[in-house]
Design a protein that fits this description.
GO terms for molecular function: allantoinase activity; dihydroorotase activity; zinc ion binding. With about 450 residues, this protein is α/β, with parallel strands linked by helices. The protein is built from 12 helices and 20 strands. It has helices spanning about 95-105, 120-135, 160-165, 180-195, 215-220, 230-245, 260-270, 280-285, 305-320, 335, 355-365, 370-385; strands spanning about 25-35, 40-45, 50-55, 65-75, 75-80, 105-110, 140, 170, 195-200, 215, 225, 250, 275-280, 325, 400-405, 410, 430, 435-440, 445, 450. Strand 5 (about 75-80), helix 1 and strand 6 (about 105-110) form a beta-alpha-beta unit. Bound molecules: zinc ion. Zinc ion binds near residues 201 and 253. Zinc ion (ZN) binds near residues 175, 201, 253 and 254.
Length: about 450
């Protein structure tokens, strides 16, 4: 398969003004980089990894975190979240979303443009970026809208947003599909010129009117209008061909079907610059969950069938699907505790994502921690050309790191999550793996489930 999607960090566009890195030293003791080898200590100085070795000592007064053989990974990167600010601060804010990200092991997230107002001009993007840096719990990158007001009619100014202080590098109308092929063609040509990524929410709306569930036996039995696979796959196929003919970098949001996997595989075999993500919920949940009519399971695209989850899992292992993204989508209880068809689509994901991927793929033995670092940190950072994240754990690299405890269980309770909303589909489920600590440029942002500072 082609390496065309592997990028050289020297060619990445810069990021906006960053909060100052933590001054002084931080010493992490008893960690195993990528879960390999013997325990080592990692000394961080002024936000950069200064030394890795055995029995390192720090100067007096230096913060020391003592661990016992925990897994050290590059800080996780999520290129698909909804932090709801501006506009729906009753369900999530940049502060609560950043806290959830830090607790989940993330050092960078990309928050979608379907805010109110829509992130379709530089001033809104800059406001999100600067607020995120003031909080300094996680780098919150605003995603710019592809079309003004997400209306699918007029392109936004990619160049102005890319040049703004927010340094917008990814554009998406996520929540809606850019279904008009002429608008998408213009978008991809414009994006190629600006060297920004387009992320498509693949859903032909003419095939999903009133749909709330995957089109299949479960929806038929429950009397719910079906959302067929072809509504996703037809757009994936069209956009892959557009990327082939017009050359822009195209990313498929939340791949959910077996057919999408086949199309992404085809695109990669043909050297087309197409990448794809999958959510934890599309890897482990199916539409059988809908039997209870619980609105917490309504999501877009919908939970599908086992043949889809199996194909997506194998594709993630094989590298056909590039990365995991949560599509973290907070909603208030009044938006979820109602008739299934009226529930807002979306689920929380930031605090449960790594534990699910670690348990399903690493603890069960199909993959190792290096693979998890690839699909949850390195590839997502490469896809959006984000410098400083998803980097090797090595001297001289920025200290964006996640410490994972692969043996510490915890039980998911919506009310205990840092997120302002409680719509987790994993309520009362036991997770086998925990985040022990998250470090952003040398600053501890979360430690043993507590958000720092
Ligand atoms: Zn979406």
């Amino acid at each position: 398969m082609s390496n065309r999607n592997e990028y050289d960090e020297a060619s990445y566009p810069e990021v906006g003004p960053l909060a100052a890195p933590a001054r002084g030293q931080l010493l992490l003791k008893g960690v195993r980089p990528y879960g390999e080898g013997e325990d080592v200590d990692v000394l961080i100085e002024d936000g950069v990894i200064a030394e890795i070795g055995e029995n390192l000592t720090a100067e007096d007064g230096v913060e020391v975190l003592e661990f016992d053989s925990l897994v050290l990974l590059p800080g996780l990167v999520d290129i698909h979240v909804h932090l709801r600010e501006p506009g729906r601060e009753d369900t999530e804010t940049l502060a609560t979303g950043s806290a959830a990200a830090a607790r989940g092991g993330f050092t960078a997230v990309f928050t979608m443009a379907n805010t109110a107002p829509v992130t379709d001009d530089p001033s809104i993007a800059e406001s999100v970026w600067l607020k995120g840096q003031a909080l300094n719990l996680c780098d919150v990158h605003p995603v710019g809208a592809i079309t003004k007001g997400l209306k699918g009619e007029t392109l936004t100014e990619f160049g102005m947003m890319a040049d703004s202080q927010a340094k917008v590098r990814m554009f998406s109308d996520d929540g809606k599909c850019v279904d008009n092929p002429l608008i998408m063609r213009r978008a991809i040509e414009y994006a190629r010129g600006e060297d920004v990524l387009l992320a498509q929410h693949c859903e032909d709306p003419r095939l999903t009117a009133d749909a709330s569930a995957h089109e299949g036996a479960t929806a038929a039995r429950l009397g719910l209008t079906g959302w067929p696979r072809v509504a996703e796959e037809s757009i994936v196929a069209r956009d892959a061909i557009m990327a082939r003919d017009y050359g822009g970098r195209m990313h498929i949001c939340h791949a959910s079907t077996e057919g999408t996997v086949e199309l992404v595989k085809w695109a990669k075999e043909h050297d087309i610059p197409l990448t794809a993500e999958v959510t934890p919920h599309h890897l482990i949940l199916t539409d059988e969950k809908l039997e209870t009519y619980d609105g917490v399971y309504r999501v877009n695209p919908p939970l599908r069938e086992q043949r889809d989850t199996l194909a997506l899992r194998q594709a993630l292992i094989d590298g056909i699907i590039d990365c995991v993204a949560t599509d973290h989508a907070p909603h208030g209880s009044e938006e979820k505790c109602c008739e299934f068809e009226h529930a807002k689509p979306g689920m929380l994901g930031l605090e449960t994502s790594m534990p699910i991927i670690a348990e399903e793929f690493v603890l069960k033995g199909d993959c190792d921690w290096r693979w998890l670092a690839k699909v949850m940190s390195e590839r997502p950072a490469q896809i959006v050309k984000l410098p400083g994240h998803g980097r090797p754990i090595a001297v001289g690299e920025p200290a964006n790191l996640t410490v994972v405890d692969p043996g510490k269980k915890w039980t998911v309770r919506g009310e205990d999550l840092a997120s302002k909303s409680e719509n987790t589909p994993y309520e009362e489920m036991e997770m086998a793996v925990s985040v022990a600590a998250t470090v952003l440029r040398g600053k501890v942002t979360a430690l043993n489930g507590e958000v720092a500072g």
